[in-house]
Amino acid sequence: MSTTDQVYPPSAEFVAQANANAEMYQRAADDPTEFWAEQARRLDWATPFSTVLDWSDTPFAKWFADGKLNVAVNCVDRHVDAGKGDRVAIHWVGEPGDTRDLTYGQLKDEVSKAANYFTAIGLQAGDRVAIYMPMVPEAIITMLACARLGLTHTVVFAGFSSAALRARVDDAAAKVVVTTDGQYRRGQPAPLKSAVDEALGSGDDAAPSIEKVIVVRRTNHDPDLPWVHGRDVWWEDTVEESSFVHEAEAFDAEHPLFLLYTSGTTGSPKGIVHSSGGYLTQANYTFHNVFDHKEGRDVFWCTADIGWVTGHTYIVYGPLSAGATEIVYEGTPNSPDEHRHFNIIEKYGVTTYYTAPTLIRTFMKWGKEIPGAHDLSSLRLLGTVGEPINPEAWRWYYEFIGGNRCPIVDTWWQTETGGHMLAPLPGVTACTPGSAMGPLPGISAKIVDDAGNELPRGEQGYLVLDKPWPGMLRGIWGDPQRFKDTYWSRFAEQGWYFAGDGARYDENGALWVLGRVDDVMNVSGHRISTAEVESALVAHPAVAEAAVIGAADETTGQGIVAFVILMEDAEPNDDLIAEMRNQVAVDISPIAKPREINIVPELPKTRSGKIMRRLLKDVAEGRELGDTSTLVDPSVFEAIRAQRA
Ligand code: ATP
Ligand code: MG
């Protein structure tokens, strides 16, 4: 990966209409308090705030602390009150092809009904509600109804096991689970409610905090759906029957809006707590500027699942607080076939498309003919999130999906940060493929060594966030010590947030996120990043995806072990392996040549599409697998082990 690669400036046409401008950086740096206050005023406050940041109890921040607002009113009612009730909020597309459009007016009615029912069953502000649902509108309605009542929601991927659900219900002491009877998986209904029954147990084993399970009818696949009388109710008999008139109350800016468990890529998941006012400010600010959102014109699509933070911030709170029209799609990108996303873009005139690098690499594997068969001219801006994007994938995305016309925003952030932190500003930044470019206006980041010294361009170190920001996590649920230890102890003296990622500025000042600090490999004393070796492998035309880890090695300290998925038409043989190793030697250095390259059919990934390198390391070093609760498909290890045997 050469950092002097071609740079992609925005077109004059894009610049002329962009929401963001270069002057924001300076303004935010000169007076961050005023800058964030201005962003917060994009929201409607029932009681305006008079203080911006209280950082006296570091690392427990308070933002806009004496202000009060209702998050759901900001996401729904205020648009209706402004005469936009007929605007479509959500174009929903079900996996089997059924569709449903919800206007802001309809969304308000639905959220109000759910809020009335939740109140009727005795839920009160501060109670926790678990949401275990596929991507159906009721999932979003439930999140907003919780926000409306000051209930703290915790969304659990509907792909997770009953054990993972139970662990989260217990940790959060949730009173209610909202779920569906079943969910579609590649055209077939699969049970979901039964996983809830298994999770919640019965008798002595029953989840102690649970009072109700609310079930949305989605697949209708089982006429004898098991039912616990007194605990289980149908959404259609309860929420649907409730009044659509609901008076919302305002809550403190610091009221906990949700807790969400991290992906578990580096260890066991952590229950991250987010606030109301600060979080929504960050969501709205970044949505407006990074996605250059134009109200009433854009059709936005974030392809994430609401089970991870990207779905929270860029399907629910960012777009809806901005009055956006967006796509919500229930299924996978290849049901019924690989054209699905492109059909949706074409049909709804999607302007802004936000996805994960793993999907772009999958599209590359499927071939450019697939996007090429569609009119994608409505697109004007593309984005990525979740992992570093390989420069090769970036260029493919730019050319074959963006038609060489759309800026790409590579957004670095975490569950903990609440919203985008590092990203180019479209219309301002000239992008280097593979780089997240730098901190957004108002955000401050440094790359430092162990002692906290800032490193010069070209040297890799730890990524730290050295100033608080509104969307920052307020803690780990029930575990203030783990909160301090994980994020604030490494640079305690300086009071910096330790992100856990390695990074480097290149000679032009563009910031490259190089992967997890724990994943940085040490080969004969050379520090080599997993992301760079992976990008070199992916640059080989036969390679679709690559995951690289450093495995203990007697002679070199660590040896580089690669796991590679080939393009559909590639022929695995020794020559190809030699070519791949050579590609790494040429692109990076002979030191970075993998000791071992395994051709595998699949890689272990989280539901959010991240490669779980720590599990590959367990395999390479012959250990038992660590926490696999957030893995999509544990059976991938059979194929990987078979390949290595
Ligand atoms: P856990 O903290 O439990 O290990 P996780 O870190 O995978 O899980 P998330 O909060 O979903 O959980 O992921 C955040 C991480 O994803 C970041 O720390 C970073 O490593 C990676 N990431 C996200 N976006 C980008 C990006 N644009 N470029 C590079 N890395 C990214
Ligand atoms: Mg993390």
TrEMBL record:
Listed InterPro entries: Ac_CoA_lig, ACAS_N, AMP-bd_C, AMP-bd_C_sf, AMP-binding_CS, AMP-dep_synth/lig_dom, ANL_N_sf
Q: Which GO terms describe its molecular function?
A: acetate-CoA ligase activity
Ranges of residues in domain AMP-binding enzyme C-terminal: 532-610
Q: Which cofactor does it need?
A: Mg(2+)
| Protein family membership | Belongs to the ATP-dependent AMP-binding enzyme family.
Quick one: which gene encodes this?
Answer: acs
List the catalysed reactions.
acetate + ATP + CoA = acetyl-CoA + AMP + diphosphate
Post-translational modification remark: Acetylated. Deacetylation by the SIR2-homolog deacetylase activates the enzyme.
Q: What is its EC number?
A: 6.2.1.1
List UniProt keywords, sorted A-Z. Acetylation, ATP-binding, Ligase, Magnesium, Metal-binding, Nucleotide-binding
**Which Pfam families does its entry note?**
ACAS_N (PF16177), AMP-binding (PF00501), AMP-binding_C (PF13193)
Q: Which residues carry this modification: N6-acetyllysine?
A: K610
Q: What is this protein called?
A: Acetyl-coenzyme A synthetase
Domain called AMP-dependent synthetase/ligase: residue spans: 82-477
Record's keyword annotation contains Magnesium: yes
- Domain Acetyl-coenzyme A synthetase N-terminal positions: 22-75
Annotated binding of Mg(2+), by residue: V538, H540, V543
